[in-house]
Amino acid sequence: MTQSQRLLLIAPSAMTRTPAFDRAAALALAMQLPLHIVAFDYSQALAVAGLFAPEQFNRARDGYLQTHRQWLVDQAGLLSKQGVEVTSEVVWVQHPYEEILNFITEMPLALIIKDAQEESAYKRVFFTPLDWQLLRDCPVPVHLVTTALNARPRNVLAIIDVLRDEDQDPVFNDQIISAAAKLAAVCDASLELLHVYDWTAIYVQDMGIGALPLASGIHEMLGAAQHEAFAAIAERHGVSPQRRHFIVGAPVPSICEFVSDHRTDVIVMGTVQHKGLSKLIGTTAEHLLHRAPCSVLAIKPGRMLQS
Q: In which family does this protein belong, per the annotation (predicted)?
């Protein structure tokens, strides 16, 4: 008999209850899946000191791990009282991503949940190297939590791109919408669908041969084609006209404004292996993830959110 799927919550190394705990509990109850909590601990200074005093290092490490382990057990107990089937562990490891891959191998995971770190000086989210590794390479859907607005999402937004290039399967749009629809359904949340038509990007691409789009109206024609494609995919997924949003403008500011106006809890978007430094699905996703106007659920091609 195959092992049932579960959610994995990556707890912060600091013994602090964060919004991701409440989101993980809410999703575990909504999706009727068990939850496993793991915290990764490591101290470079302590590890170096251990080279000279291994016995003292072992005692110090084991003592700290036991304290952290008991704290997680206490948190798990609180979640159990809410009806969540939950287990927990603390792992001493320098490179958490490799350990996360071991979890993926050892247990079938429906979703990985983690807090994104807020940089208070700028009131924006700063993604750590581990966050970027998860978004870029992790084969399992990743949910980065940025706010405690609603533990159980009430407003879910699927963002699609109707002009994916030859390396990005158009079917990926269907997967993004399906994942968002499943999340909205299990959480009894509203589902909105959004595409932003950035005609300025098309204009800039064409600057090498003159301002052809503006002179000939090609940008209006392309916009109409994108709107038609957007309407078709929305119709295919049963998204009502009132829930479809086709916006003309710069993608990132338009999305951030939409999220603010609609009090969106979760953006569902796609990330893929991609050429370039970020290896994300283009600069829009990269910039949007930097600004993170709300929590983000990122999925990869071929990976569906289980319900």
A: Belongs to the universal stress protein A family.
